[in-house]
Amino acid sequence: MTESITSLSERELSELIAKASRELESKRQSKRRETIAQIKDLAASIGVNVEIIDGEKKPASRQGTTVPIKYRDPENPENVWTGRGVKPRWLSALLSQGRSLEEFQV
N or C: which end of the chain has fewer CB within 10 A? Predict the structure, then answer.
């Protein structure tokens, strides 16, 4: 079998891989359906109703809210700070010069 595979072109190998992937997925789905049917039959034989929820879990989304800007550098408007976390260097430098934090509030 390896001799026949090694003689295939790249395109033929790609087609073979795609076909094998489709066949594998088909067999997995068939096995899944058979297993679900067996579970339902076994449950019914003892008088139990089984509901199988078919579907994949969605990953939990970590969508945070956008925090509004509270402080802005008047000399460079791209320098902003929301007031959360460590003070940015630009703000620390201005505060060390004796300026007030309130000067930079938006």
Answer: N
